[in-house]
């Protein structure tokens, strides 16, 4: 199965703020490399702060464009992974091994085959 | 689509084939929930760790059989302890340390293996002196895993044995899961694995990453095994399902791991490219009632663009590494021609014919010739294709191959020779053991009858 891992880093992802330390970067890279070597990562990306994002709201025929930044600071997504795993439990296990020390990371299974 | 399709085989329930209730604490409620959670975590950890655990142990003890037993012992210990003690912070290192201690015990009992015991004893002492076990594992883990892949796919083993052993030790699948994937009795798979391990031990197959000319031959065997697993999932040879995506996923995963372990091997990337591109069509290959939908009839909007993108990138990597004339890379290039065409009508058949010519030059294969005939039929018309197919009719290896009459029927139908086409489709139906494929062939035969009457 595929899961989408959403990095809900909150206001952290809104920064220029403080860039991560070289140690933190190295630790993250080591972790990411392990995931890639295990054949888990099939896609990944970092997102610009929500101040550069847009929202489109639909109401019948009406379309409203809303400029960022978005207010729900805890729900703001800073990046994503697409993982190929055998179960949600495996995804949990991989995520537990990450060096992250803040934020919420959400695992969502991608609907495949049946739902398409 | 039937809902069992994607969940039946890839589901993780009972992955280890262990009845969770047995090890759960006696009183119900919260503690039982905790135990169940621990078991689910253990299953997931096993999937992540087992290959590298077995690989590290195999380097240590020299044979896969003992390595796997030790790993299983460590797993049993985890199942006994973790539900109450909690999952350790570094579960992989815990499993490895436990297995190594079991190994020490084992060798102590087996007095004949005195020398290895000493080596092992030293190693355990070193750990006890505070060497970071995790680092020690990390250092060699890539080569260990590669060694394990080469061992499981050793050419002295039969294809069936290599497939079963690879899924078992690299995929971390249980015997039951492998049996389900290949629709054979559990006892057969168990026997295959036991025999394979014995064969490796008796032949004194060394745990190593081969180099030079031997590496080429051994790597070919590894790629063959991965592709066999993929193809069994992609075009199930028997049973009621046309595809079994679980097997494709396992093969792709092993392929992707191998591409990271051996990044300079062009054909590894070629095979990964081929599998990624083929897998991109998985959901378009099956119709609403579970019936097969062939390549040119597929709704290309349902192709998985991410996998196509990954496949094309892997193909480019293979070609850059000089693999342009490798068998897998060439087949991936053919698959890429289809992937790049927005509609079936835009397919570059001339290029595909040229690529098949190149594949045919590598080795004579009647199956490749048959595929080439299809491409020629598309590029230069059905009569040209039929000439090539007819030349294959005396081929003994294709006598029972259902796709020969299927292709011939297709070409005859395009030429308006409906009665002959119908007979070919019926013959194809009688030759395949896959239920849905048989129905497709019977439907084609019926259509020919209808077209003959209408025409």
Structural account:
The complex is a heterodimer of chains A (116) and B (455). With 116 residues, chain A is α+β, with helices and mostly antiparallel strands. Chain A has a single domain, classed as Dimeric alpha+beta barrel (Alpha-Beta Plaits, 2-Layer Sandwich). In chain A, 22% of the residues lie in helices and 34% in strands. Chain A has two helices and six strands. Chain A has a four-stranded antiparallel sheet, with helices on one face. A two-stranded antiparallel sheet of chain A has the order 3-4. In chain A, a hairpin with a 2-residue loop joins strand 3 and strand 4. Chain A is globular. Chain B has a two-stranded parallel ribbon. In chain B, helix 13 runs parallel beside helix 15 and helix 15 packs antiparallel against helix 16. The longest helix of chain B is centred in the first third of the chain and has 32 residues. Chain B is elongated, with a radius of gyration of 25 Å. Chains A and B meet through helix 2 of A and helix 1, helix 3, helix 12 and helix 14 of B.
How many strand units of chain A? 6
The first-to-last residue Cα distance of chain A is 14 Å
The N- to C-terminal Cα distance of chain B equals 35 Å
Biggest interface between chains: A-B, 20 and 34 residues
How many distinct helices of chain A?
2
User: H/E series of chain A, N to C?
Assistant: EHEEEEHE
Tell me the helix content of chain B. over 70%
Reading the helices and strands of chain B in chain order gives: HHHHHHHHHHHEHHHHHHHHHEH
Average pLDDT reading of chain A: 89
How many DSSP-defined strands of chain B? 2
Shape category of chain B: elongated
The CATH C-level class name of chain A: Alpha Beta
**What is the strand arrangement across the widest sheet of chain A?**
2-5-1-6
């Amino acid at each position: 199965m595929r899961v989408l891992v959403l990095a809900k880093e909150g206001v952290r992802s809104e920064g220029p703020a403080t860039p991560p330390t070289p140690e933190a970067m190295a630790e993250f890279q080591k972790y990411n490399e392990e995931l890639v070597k295990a054949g888990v990562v099939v896609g990944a990306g970092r997102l610009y702060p929500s101040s550069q994002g847009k929202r489109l709201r639909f109401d019948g025929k009406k379309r409203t464009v809303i400029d960022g930044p978005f207010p729900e600071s805890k729900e703001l997504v800073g990046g994503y992974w697409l993982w190929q795993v055998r179960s949600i439990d495996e995804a949990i296990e991989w995520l537990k091994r990450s060096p992250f020390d803040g934020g919420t990371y959400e695992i969502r299974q991608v609907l495949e085959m049946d739902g398409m | 689509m039937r809902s069992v399709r994607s969940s039946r085989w890839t589901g993780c329930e009972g992955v280890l084939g262990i009845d969770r209730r047995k090890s759960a604490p006696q009183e119900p409620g919260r503690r039982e929930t905790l135990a169940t959670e621990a078991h689910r975590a253990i299953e997931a950890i096993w999937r992540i760790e087992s290959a590298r655990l077995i690989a590290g142990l195999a380097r240590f003890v020299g044979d896969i059989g003992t390595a796997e037993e030790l790993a299983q012992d460590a797993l049993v210990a985890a199942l006994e302890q973790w539900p109450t003690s909690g999952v350790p912070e570094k579960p992989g290192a815990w499993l490895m340390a436990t297995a190594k201690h079991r190994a020490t015990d084992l060798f102590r009992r087996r007095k004949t293996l005195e020398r290895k015991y000493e080596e092992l004893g030293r190693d355990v002492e070193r750990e006890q002196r505070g060497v970071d076990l995790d680092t020690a594992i990390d250092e060699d883990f890539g080569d260990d895993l590669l060694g394990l892949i080469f061992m499981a796919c050793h050419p002295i083993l039969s294809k069936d044995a290599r497939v079963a052993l690879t899924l078992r030790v690299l995929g971390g699948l249980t015997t039951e899961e492998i049996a389900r994937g290949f629709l054979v009795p559990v006892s057969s798979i168990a026997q295959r694995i036991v025999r394979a391990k014995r064969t490796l031990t008796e032949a004194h197959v060394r745990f190593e990453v081969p180099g030079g000319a031997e590496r080429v031959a051994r790597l070919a065997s590894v790629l063959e095994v991965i592709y066999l697993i993929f193809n069994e999932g992609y075009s199930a040879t028997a049973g009621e399902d046309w595809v079994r995506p679980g097997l494709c996923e396992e093969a792709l995963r092993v392929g992707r791991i191998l591409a990271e372990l051996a990044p300079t091997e062009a054909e590894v990337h070629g095979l990964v490219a081929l599998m990624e591109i083929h897998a991109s069509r998985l959901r378009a290959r099956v119709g609403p009632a579970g019936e097969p939908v062939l390549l040119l009839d597929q709704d290309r909007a349902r192709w998985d663009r991410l996998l196509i993108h990954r496949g094309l990138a892997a193909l480019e990597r293979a070609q850059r590494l000089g693999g342009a004339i490798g068998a897998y890379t060439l087949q991936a290039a053919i698959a890429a021609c289809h992937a790049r065409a927005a509609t079936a009508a835009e397919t570059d058949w001339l290029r595909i014919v040229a690529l098949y010519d190149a594949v045919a030059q590598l080795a004579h294969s009647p199956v490749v010739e048959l595929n080439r005939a299809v491409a020629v039929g598309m590029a230069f018309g059905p009569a040209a294709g039929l000439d090539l197919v007819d030349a294959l009719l005396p081929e003994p290896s294709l006598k029972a191959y259902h796709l020969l009459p299927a292709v011939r029927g297709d070409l005859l139908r395009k030429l308006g020779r409906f009665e002959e086409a119908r007979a070919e489709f019926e013959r194809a139906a009688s030759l395949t053991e896959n239920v849905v494929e048989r129905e497709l062939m019977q439907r084609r035969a019926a259509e020919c009858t209808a077209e003959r009457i209408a025409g």
